[in-house]
Amino acid sequence: MDIAIGEPDKNFAKLEALLEEAVAGDVKPDVIIFPEMWNTGYALERIRELADREGERTRALLSAFSRKHGVLIVGGSVADLREDGVYNTIYSYDREGEQAGAYSKIHLFRLMDEEKFLLSGSEVGRLELDGVPAGAMICYDIRFPELARRLALGGAQVLFVPAEWPKPRLHHWRTLLTARAVENQMFVVSCNRVGVSGTTEFFGHSMVIDPWGEVIAEGDESERIIRATIDLGLVPEVRSRIPIFEDRRPSLYQE
Ligand SMILES: NC(=O)CCC(=O)C(=O)O
To answer: CN hydrolase domain: from which residue to which, for each copy (predicted)?
Structure first.
C-alpha cells in the first residue's frame, strides 16, 4: 500500500478498497496484513492531531470487516492517540470481529525521529489466531533478535511484521527478516509500504518466508496484494530437523 502523508481519510478509503479486493477472489484469505502507520504515514509534526483517538476508527473498521468476511486481520499499524501520547499500534482481529491483540512498537526509530513524537510500547506482541500462537513486531523491531526469540520461546509459529522501511536498506530488510525466520524456525509474514514521502522512498518488497528461510512470496515496488499459502506443519518439521530450541544454553547468554 502507498500511504498519503497526513491524510487519514484518503488512507482509510484506500485501505477499505484494498481489503475488499483481498477478499473478492475465489480463494478467500485466512489472514490479512498491511503496512505500518497506514492511517497517517510519518506526518510526525502533526501526529497528535492526526492520530486515531484510542484507535477507535481503526478498531471499528477492522472489527466490522473481519466479522463480515470471517477473516483474521493483523491490522498493519496506526498512529494511535491515548491519554499520555501517541503510540504506533497493531490492532488484530479474529474471524468474529473480536480484538485478538494490540501491540505498540517497542523500539522507536531515531533515523525517522520517532522518539521525538511517539511513545514506546511496554509489552511484547503475543497473538493467537485460530488457535495458532503467533507474534507481532513493527519495522525497526526486527533489528532486535531478542524480541523475536522471546516470541518464539512463547510458542509463536508465525511472526507478523508491518513496516515503513525505506531505501537504501533493502539488503538489511531482506537479511533481517530471513534471519528472524531461520533462527527461530518460524514463518515471517511482512508487509512494507511503497511510494514516496518527501525525500524518502519506500521499496515495498513485502515478504513471506518459511521456517527454513525460503522466500515463498515477495512483492516489488508497486502497490498490490501479495498472496501466499503457508503450511504450518513445516514449523515442527524444521524444529525437529535442527533442534535449536533443545540445544540452547541460556545460562551462558546473560551478561
Ligand atoms: N519505520 C521504521 O521503523 C524504519 C526502520 C528502518 O528503516 C531500519 O533501517 O531499521
So the answer is: 1-232
Ligand 1 in reach of 139 Cβ (< 6 A): yes
251 located within any domain: no
pLDDT tens figures, 84-129: 999 999 999 999 999 999 999 999 999 999 999 999 999 999 999 9
Q: What is the pTM of this model?
A: 0.98
| DSSP annotation string for 77-121 | -EEEEETTEEEEEEEEE-TTS-EEEEEE-SS--GGGTHHHH-PPP
Closest CA to 113 of 198, 190, 194, 4: 198
Nearest to 190 by CA among 149, 148, 241, 251: 148
Nearest CA to ligand 1 atom 4: 165
**Domain-located, residue 255:** no
Instruction: Provide the number of structural domains found in the chain.
Output: 1
Q: Which one of the listed residues 36, 114, 164, 191 is annotated catalytic?
A: 36
Let me know if residue 249 belongs to a domain: no
Q: Three cell numbers at 189?
A: 509474514
Show the cell assigned to 87.
Answer: 503510540
Q: Is residue 187 part of a domain?
A: yes
